Structure formats: C-alpha cells, structure tokens
Amino acid sequence: MTARNILVINCGSSSIKFALACEAREGFILHGLAERLGEPGAVLAWQQGDLRDSIDLQGAGHEAALAHLLPLVEKALDGPLHAIGHRVVHGGERFTQACRIDAEVLRAIRDTAPLAPLHNPANLLGIDAAMALYPQLPHIAVFDTAFHQSLPPRAYRYAVPEPLYSEQHVRRYGFHGTSHRYVCHRAAEISGLALGDSNWLSAHLGNGSSTCAIANGQSRDTSMGLTPLEGLMMGTRSGDVDPNLHSHLARTLGWSLERIDHMLNHDSGLLGLSGLSNDMRTLEHARDQGHAGAALAIEVFCYRLAKSLAAMTCALPRLDGIIFTGGIGENSPLVRNLTVRHLHVLNLELDGEANARCVRGVEGPIHLAGHPRVLVIPTNEERQIVLDTLAVLG
Ligand code: AMP
C-alpha cells in the first residue's frame, strides 16, 4: 500500500489551522493558519519546509479560505490526498472515539452544539466547506471530549438533581482530550513503560488549560467540565469560582447572565487578575520588573494548578509521572518550578538545569534523579488527529 496523505483541519470561529501529513514521513509536509476570517485583515500564512509565505484573503470567510488553501495542499502533495481529519470540540456522550463523518454524524455534532456554542458551529463550518470541496474523500471527526468518555460517574457527575443529567445532559465532559492522549503515549514511550501499565498526570497549559489523570491509557478525571470554563485559571477564563458568584453579581450589580458569562470567559484569568495581559510571557517579564499584579496572577495560576494536580492523584492507583505541555507548560520553567514547589508532599523535585533547558520544543525529564518523574512533552494535536484518521481508515 502506498503511504497515505492526510489533511488535518482545525476550524475555529474566525480561524482555520491546518496541517498536511504523509504517514511515511515525520513532521508535516505543509502547515499553517488562516486567521481573522470574515474581517478585513483576513490572512492565510503557511510553511512548507523552510519556506514561509502568506496571502491577504481580503475579508474571506471559511469556505473562501479553504478554497485558497486546498490548491496549496494539492501542490505540496506527492500523490493523492486520502482523507481529511477534522477536529471537533464537543462530541457529547455519543462519541467515544474518532469516526467517519456521514449525515448521521453531522446531525449528532449539530445536536451537540448547545453544549459548545462557540466551538461546534465553527467546526461544522470547516467540515461543510471541506466536504463541499472534496465530496469523494473520507472525512473523519476527532473529538476533544472522546478521550474523557472513560471517566467513571463519580468523576463526571455534578451533585445536582438527577433529571438535569438524564434530560439535559448536564455532566462533566472534559476537553483537550487529543492533547492529553498524545502526551501520555509519548510519556510512556520515552520512559520505557507500557501505556497500558502506567499512570500519569497531565497539565495542558495554554490559553486554555486543563489537567487530566490517566490510568493505564484511560482518562479517569479531568479539570474541565460541562464547558471549558471549569477548573484551572486560564488566559482570560476564571476557572473555578463560587457558583453563587452569578447570583451575587446579578443581585448586587444588576449584571445580566451574558455580561457575567463574558466576564468569566474573556476578562478573567491571567488577564483579569494581573490587569495587564493574558500572555504568560508578558506577565513573566512584568513580574521581573516588579509588577505586583503580574506576580499575583502567576502565583495564583501555579497554586491552583498544583491543587488540581494533587486532587487528580485520587484517580490513580500510583503515579508514574507528571507531564507539562501546551504553550506555557512547554516553555515556562518558572511556572513549572513554582507549581512543583507546592507539590513537595508528592516528593517531587526539579533539576533546575534540565527545567531551564526544556523550552521551545525540547522534550525531556526535568526531575532530580531519585524523585518521581516530571516530563516536558510538546503536544502535537495535529499529529494525533492524523493517527486517529489513519486508524479509522484502517
Ligand atoms: P497555547 O494556547 O498552547 O498556544 O499557549 C499560549 C500561551 O503560552 C500564552 O500564554 C503564551 O504566553 C505562553 N507561552 C508561549 N511561549 C512562552 C514562553 N517562552 N514563556 C512563557 N509562556 C509562553
């Protein structure tokens, strides 16, 4: 059989991230990002080998952006395209693994949209546009939530009246599943352990952040819930707050639900607490310059992260290691150091030099010999989507 070529599409509300892979090659043949779609500044940027280029899309939307992008894909290919793998954020309880998209799957993704109103409709835009342009190809959906469908009820149920679960599907779903899955495979691989006989805590720390407890290759608990707002403090998201905050703000300030929603999702987290930025790089720099808000934001971020990791140990029979990934997890020795300091009861201890070295894509262990493993593993969600797409193709 000839090596298969897979295109990965990750469609957001105003962006399309894409990557073209051949199963016989490491890395991507072509990858890039179309952003600010539907706005005057819409642009498509890509990289092929060492070559970087971009074009002005002049306000193009998703379909027009894909129509520009697909000729680039065709040109970069050394043979036919075999399938397109689509990232889908929310698969509800219906999808426990990747699957080929047909009319019924499309309907199910649409039906799940109320649980992810910002994400699933955007994912569907990409699927619809790609299916219109390549109707003859297999299109595969890879769900962020699917990995967490192995959570036991004690981890996924909220303590609210039962009909809210059975009739309204109110439960914890979890997100970032593709990333947590990729890094735990890699962690087992580089540690010489079998995935099916190893136990990990994973911290995916980016603009969105979550922790996950993975026992013998299966997600057993995770910090995000019904929506990606629950759990850790993030770039602009608050993470956990007292659920009565909503009624308190409504009563005392007369705020609407929409305003509270917006505040918790877009004005909170690192940005809200620091009063400066949602970007960890900016905050680290400001902290060094003595900015009190930046220092506090980083401190709260790391303390809450450590608390979440400690809580996640309840889901594991033993701990083989902690994994840091995502833009912050892969690049911030400071965050890793401050977080691990709060976990001394787990006997964790970092090797300062190794911690400093593991940035910008450098993978490796960063713990001191004789202490439990702490690993930095660059995530690669696109690679995992390629692997899942190949697995569905058989
Ligand atoms: P992601 O959503 O995974 O792309 O991660 C974005 C986050 O990673 C932002 O908060 C960035 O500031 C952070 N980040 C990227 N590079 C660095 C770095 N060198 N040091 C600290 N944070 C970083």
Automatic annotation (TrEMBL):
User: Which top-rank group of organisms is this from?
Assistant: Bacteria
Q: MF terms per GO, please? A: acetate kinase activity; ATP binding; magnesium ion binding
Q: Where is this site: Transition state stabilizer?
A: 176, 237
- Catalytic activity, EC: 2.7.2.1
Keyword flag Protein biosynthesis? no
Q: Where does ATP bind?
A: 17, 204-208, 279-281, 327-331
Summarize where substrate binds, as residue positions. Answer: 87
Q: Which reaction does it catalyse?
A: acetate + ATP = acetyl phosphate + ADP
Membrane-crossing residue ranges in chain numbering: none
Which UniProt keywords are present, listed alphabetically?
A: ATP-binding, Cytoplasm, Kinase, Magnesium, Metal-binding, Nucleotide-binding, Transferase
Which locations, inside or outside the cell, does it occupy?
Cytoplasm
Chain positions recorded as Mg(2+) binding sites: 10, 381
Q: What class of enzyme is it?
A: transferase
Chief localization: cytoplasm
| Pathway as given in its UniProt record | Metabolic intermediate biosynthesis; acetyl-CoA biosynthesis; acetyl-CoA from acetate: step 1/2
**Thylakoid among keywords:** no
Q: Which GO terms describe its biological process?
A: acetate metabolic process; acetyl-CoA biosynthetic process
What is the stated purpose of this protein?
A: Catalyzes the formation of acetyl phosphate from acetate and ATP. Can also catalyze the reverse reaction.
Self-association or partners: how does it assemble? Homodimer.
| Membership in a protein family | Belongs to the acetokinase family.
| Protein name as catalogued | Acetate kinase
Record the organism.
Pseudomonas knackmussii (strain DSM 6978 / CCUG 54928 / LMG 23759 / B13)
